[in-house]
Amino acid sequence: MSTSVEVSPGASTELSPAEPTPSISARIRQRLESLGALAVMTGKVFSRAVRPPYDWGALVYHTESLGVRSMPIALLTSTFAGLVISLQFGFFLARFGVQYTVGRVVILTLFRELAPVLTALTVGARIGSGIAAELGSMVVTEQVDAIRALGADPLRKLVVPRVLACLLVLPTLTVLADVIGLLAGALAVNLQYGITLELFFQGALDTVFLSDFTSGVLKGAVFGVIIGLVGCFKGLTVEGGTEGVGRATTQSVAITSVTVCLADFFITKLTLYL
Q: Is residue 133 part of a domain?
């Protein structure tokens, strides 16, 4: 027999007092605990990734889902990045009468910094938030608990394919961004300053080294691992139901963006003289 609960007009509808805000030391401890849990999960993910069996079907599916569907935003970002830096550098170099060297500056800027970083920030925001939302929804609906109950490993089944897919997707999109940005920059300076495509690419090829290209690809691979791990970690540690899923999605984007910028500094420091 069901009973209904009604609130009379005179009944008190005051909400219970909010929980006290945690202190700074408690927040720092919580952040350190989360960082330690992420480090532990990272070690487990890599240990499982190198041991068979390998789920090739899941890897192909997530590579297509995360990579192919992210190509439009990667192409758009790289196109406008190439246009902007070519016009800017062409304008300033024209003051010294050496605007014909713009190709040398553009290719180094794209290969070493703009292509990998902008791709990670834009595409990574989409990928990381999507992973966090997907896994967070599975946690809320107890699908992850069901996987454990069936004797399967959630890390091997859910996390490893996504992290490996990110590891493959980001360097590939970085190379694509290099090519598209360079073409867009060449067309921009040709139309704006009358620099021929042959002169632009000749100057670019005379300046760039293989290490300039590989440093950007290396950054893309590291950024991909960071995006995959952060998205999976925030998704699997969701608390608070559907509201927690929203918080995890937002936090994954913020953490990924900051971590990518920090990693970019250290990788640049290591590869600058290679």
A: yes
Tell me the mean pLDDT in the region 91-110.
84
Mean pLDDT (the chain, rounded): 85
Instruction: Write a three-state SS string for 127-149.
Output: HHHHHHHHHHHHHHCCHHHHHHH
Instruction: Give the C-alpha separation, 16 to 42, whole Å.
Output: 40
Burial of 9: CB neighbours in 10 Å, binned 0-12, 13-18, 19+: exposed
> Can you tell me the distance from the alpha carbon of 53 to that of 207, in angstroms, rounded to the nearest whole number?
45
State how many domains the chain has: 1
Taking the C-alpha atoms of residue 235 and residue 229, their distance in angstroms, rounded to an integer, is: 10
Domain-located, residue 83: yes
**188 lies in which domain range?**
56-271
The reported pTM is 0.85
Q: Which residue has the tokens 């040709």?
A: 190
In a domain, 217, yes or no: yes
Instruction: Using alpha carbons, list the distances in angstroms from residue 21 to 17, 18, 26, 27, 194.
Output: 12, 9, 10, 10, 61
**Closest Cα to residue 186, out of 171, 205, 173?**
205
For 270, the token pair is 């290591």
